[in-house]
Amino acid sequence: MTQKPKPLQSIKVDGPIPAHLARSIIEETLRAAILDGRLPCGTALRQQDLADLFGVSRMPVREALRQLEAQALLSVTAHKGAVVAPLIQGDATQTYELRILLESEAMRQSIPLLTAADHEQAARYIDELETQHDYTEIGRLNRLLHMAMYSKAPNRRLLRLVEDGLNEEERFLRFNLEAMGLGKLSQDDHRAMLQAVMERDVERSVALLEQHLNRGVEVINRYLASPEAQHRKAAR
Fold it and tell me: In which element (H, E) is residue 82 found?
């Protein structure tokens, strides 16, 4: 009889964890495992199992799970506790409508406060995206690029909500980007947006962002409706 795989076995812990670093180490370790797929969607994460794995009490585990839930990487369900959240599915349009509202406001707040160094960092991310072929790294760089343009928004709660949406998109792109056929077009959008940001043209920047995200949701919806996406979903 074939044994059912245990996702937690994919997580390696090197030696004892210092008590004062336990929460952050557990959070970052689980976050990385969720983003790279070692902990698939729907995986239940039980506090005692994690406490045993990391060699700590349940308190830092509970705190780490709370942080990951706040980042929209986990959801809490009846009878299962903390569960790895699903990827973008049929609600892609609603997800992106919310992203447009949140990211537009973050961009409006951020643009007047961005420095030349911030512009240069964003440009470096675009250059890296242009030549990157690793889909995991593409998802990460895309998130960092968008946050670089929003990072100076003084409303920190707004930024946390924005990053939650980008985290969700990053996970989706890591597992589906190659099949979706996205590529150079996305970088053209990014370059046009950054140019408007550098010129401090807030209205044009926001209009280009909205166009970019609407283009993204069109591609995602088209992909989710395709036979290939349905097959991949059934295979999970």
Answer: strand 81-84
Angle (CA) 31 34 36, round 5°: 105
> Is the pLDDT reported for residue 1 higher than 50?
no
What the block records as the tokens of 155 is: 């409303």
User: How is domain 92-235 classified at the architecture level of CATH?
Assistant: Up-down Bundle (1.20)
Full-model pTM: 0.71
Does domain 14-84 bear CATH number 3.40.50.150? Answer: no
Instruction: Evaluate whether 14-84 and 92-235 have a shared fold.
Output: no
* Dihedral of the alpha carbons of 68, 5, 140, 165, in degrees to the nearest 10: -40
CA atoms 112, 140, 87, 182: torsion sign: positive
Average pLDDT, the chain: 85
- What do you get for the CA distance between the two ends of the chain, in Å? 20
Within 151-201, residue ranges assigned H as helices are 156-180, 184-198
Rounded to an integer, what distance in angstroms lies between the CA atom of residue 71 and that of residue 224? Answer: 24
So where are the chain's domains?
14-84, 92-235
